[in-house]
Write a structure and sequence with these properties.
alpha+beta, Double-stranded beta-helix, seven-stranded mixed β-sheet, four-stranded antiparallel β-sheet, 9 helices, binds fe (ii) ion
Length: 307
């Protein structure tokens, strides 16, 4: 663990010219660097617009994970078939560290980000190595880690009937569950193993099945693969109370006291990626958490998910 603060993270891959062609030619090297570093920043390449970004993703050559199929809570808009806005939540809203969609049974393995317009102020993408977090947390709070591993976790989220772009958790149940009516939503929830309650205002309170909170990677690194920090710090809106959002698998609430060491360690290990226009980042979703700092002025960072 002694080397964790001095290693290059994320690893920058400087270059020029066409990123799509670079990724076609160098996929093996890129994947080896990604497995080692967890996040790569391609800087200096010629990626002028979302179509060039889409082409770079195609050049990388792995199948996409579509937003329509996902159970993500974020409100997003497609820009090209494989590229969408990262999150439509207001600039003042911080998106806290998370593994993409780890609060659902369906999640992508990797994420691409692309900076089309660099933010004027703020707007960095915090990145945090989840294996490093778990190593330190196991020393600071061994009982908590043991319990997470033994029991897993469950997440509870209240989804509105219609998209609420004012919230980081504002995706409607209709969109989230690809359903046109309550019966269709219930069929999907049943299939996924969720518990649910309808509320008088047309919103839906849904609780996930027990999900893993710690993941073992093929090389036996263990990661804090979950959405606990984002749920605890960020799932506050007109419908959601963060203190009721997360429980152990047994249903016992995970408390502020439980979360404090995890949050402090993750904050300490976080690197803020300060975007420049044309940057592309590739993030291993099983190894690295990401988020979004608040910002002022224009900022356009787009995303794409790998299955
Ligand atoms: Fe995300």
């Amino acid at each position: 663990m002694t080397d964790m603060r001095t290693r290059e993270f994320p690893r920058t891959i400087p270059g020029s010219g066409d990123l799509a062609a670079f990724l076609v030619t160098n996929k093996g090297t890129v994947d080896a660097a990604l497995a080692d570093a967890g996040a790569l920043l391609f800087r200096g390449f010629d990626v002028p617009d979302p179509h060039a970004f889409d082409a770079a993703i195609e050049g990388y050559g792995e199948p996409g994970f579509t937003y329509e199929d996902s159970l993500s809570n974020a409100v997003r808009t497609n820009v090209t078939p494989r590229v969408f806005t990262a999150n439509e939540a207001p600039p003042t809203t911080e998106i806290f560290l998370h593994h993409e969609m780890a609060q659902t049974p369906l999640y992508p393995s990797k994420l691409f980000f692309y900076c089309e317009i660099a933010p004027e102020k703020g707007g960095a993408t915090p990145l945090c190595r989840s294996d490093w977090v778990l190593d330190r947390l196991a020393l600071a709070a061994p009982d908590f880690v043991t319990r997470l591993e033994a029991e897993g976790v469950r997440y509870t989220n209240v989804m509105p009937g219609d998209d609420d772009a004012g919230s980081g958790q504002g995706r409607s149940w209709r969109s989230t569950l690809s359903a046109t009516d309550k019966a269709g939503a219930e069929a999907r929830l049943r299939e996924l193993g969720y518990d649910w309650q309808w509320r008088d205002d047309g919103s839906l309170r849904a609780t996930t099945p027990v999900l893993d909170a710690v993941r073992m990677l093929p090389d036996e690194r263990r990661t804090f693969f979950n959405q606990l920090i984002a749920a605890f710090r960020g799932w506050a809106d007109s419908r959601n109370d963060p203190n009721r959002a997360i429980t152990f698998g047994s249903g016992i609430p995970i408390t502020a006291g439980d979360m404090a060491p995890a949050i402090a360690i993750a904050d300490d290990l976080t690197y803020d990626l300060q975007w420049q226009a044309g940057d592309v980042a590739l993030v291993d979703n099983f190894l690295v958490m990401h988020g979004r700092r608040p910002f002022k002025g224009k900022r356009r960072v787009l995303a794409s998910l790998i299955a």
